[in-house]
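The aim of this short unit is practical: by the end, you should be able to scan a pair of folded records and say something sensible about each. We start with the first protein, listed as its amino acid sequence and then its structure tokens.
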Amino acid sequence: NPAPYENRGAAYRKKGQYDKAIEDYNKAISIKPSFGYFGRARTYSLQNNESFACDSLRLAFENAHEKRKTAMKEKLDDSDFDKIRNNDCFKKIAHTTEKKEKKKRRY
């Protein structure tokens, strides 16, 4: 079950213990790839590691089911992503998720 690792990773992230958070997110990912990537992206962003943050964010959206994608999309405005918000990769991911949402609404 990846949830305990993802939850503990979030607690570490909020305490600023980023290395421990990343360890737990990696453990969650190893158990179930649809878990952990988004939290890891947030943590890498807080560390100002744009490349790893964008890679993790891309993988989060690639591996998540639709309900989880919707929840993640709503969190893209979180301050955790402020350090990478102007990064081209982040903009592309945010724009792509936005376009997919608009396309769904039309049908």
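Turning to the second protein, read its sequence before its tokens, just as you did above.
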Amino acid sequence: VSRVQTHPGKRGEYIAWRRDSVYPFMASHEGFLSSTLLEAKGEPDQYVIINKWANRQAQETYTAKPRETELRVEAREFLSQLATDALDGDVVNVHHAPPLAEQSAGS
């Protein structure tokens, strides 16, 4: 989990760059589960990024790739503040809501 801040007026370009460059590269790596971008409420141009990996080794293998370093350099075009408040940890519990069809059937 980390926070970033885009340059004013770069929101759309940043989101497109993540969609077209970052996500496909992440998805090509074994152990990648998901990446979510959240807009921080009340903080213009601030975003929270939640990346999920199957394990720490998968994430470390990804970050060791030269292309990941290149992506960080590219990010400077869009970001006034690179990842801050980086947090990480190991999953200890997950709960998923049942599929919508099961929720409707139980009503």
